[in-house]
Amino acid sequence: MEKLQIAIEKARASRLAHRVPATAGADPQAPAVIHAEHASSWSAIPEMTLDPAVLGRNRVVAYNTGPSSTYYDILRTRLRDEAKRRSIRRIAITSTRPQAGKTTTLANLSLAFSRMPAYRTMVFDFDLRRPALAKVLGQDPAHD
Fold first, then answer.
1. Which of 14-28, 34-48, 66-80, 112-126 has the highest mean pLDDT?
2. How many helices (H) and strands (E) does the chain have?
3. Is residue 15 part of a domain?
């Protein structure tokens, strides 16, 4: 057990040593320019229109704030706090077996995050065998 702890500490120290500070060599005016570029990129993405009846049939309860979305709001807040603490910007939802609730959890969690004005949420369904997120959200997936 002691060897494992030493290896973990060594890996952590190595990772921190290679991290470059975000402000290193940055122009003081650059963040505003970068922020404006990001804002225009986000505005180019079309916003989805969701049907509450379809969401309800598919157990997507986090569309609006209320008693049914409380548990997803708690999960969202805990994930947000942990992500800030660890500097994590992306979250993946996985399971060891099919039909475990990945898509339902992803839909509800993404809607819980989307209700926070300070956050922008993008969701990707990487289940290449049985993609179901578009169906759960009542969307017609376009194939280009």
1. 66-80
2. 6, 0
3. no
* Alpha helices (runs of H) in 62-101, residue ranges in sequence order: 70-86
Give me the percent of the chain exceeding a pLDDT of 90: 39
Residue 17 to residues 12, 26, 87: CA-CA distances in angstroms? 9, 19, 15
Residue 17 falls inside a structural domain: no
Does residue 13 sit within a domain? Answer: no
Q: How many residues does the chain have?
A: 144
Domain count of the chain?
A: 1
What is the residue-averaged pLDDT of the chain?
A: 81
Does some domain include residue 141? yes
CA nearest neighbour of 90 among 60, 121, 44, 69: 121
The domain in which residue 131 lies consists of 49-144
Average pLDDT over residues 46-65: 89
At position 124, the amino acid (one-letter code) is F
In this prediction the pTM is 0.68
In whole angstroms, give the CA distance from residue 25 to residue 59. Answer: 48
Average pLDDT over residues 7-23: 64
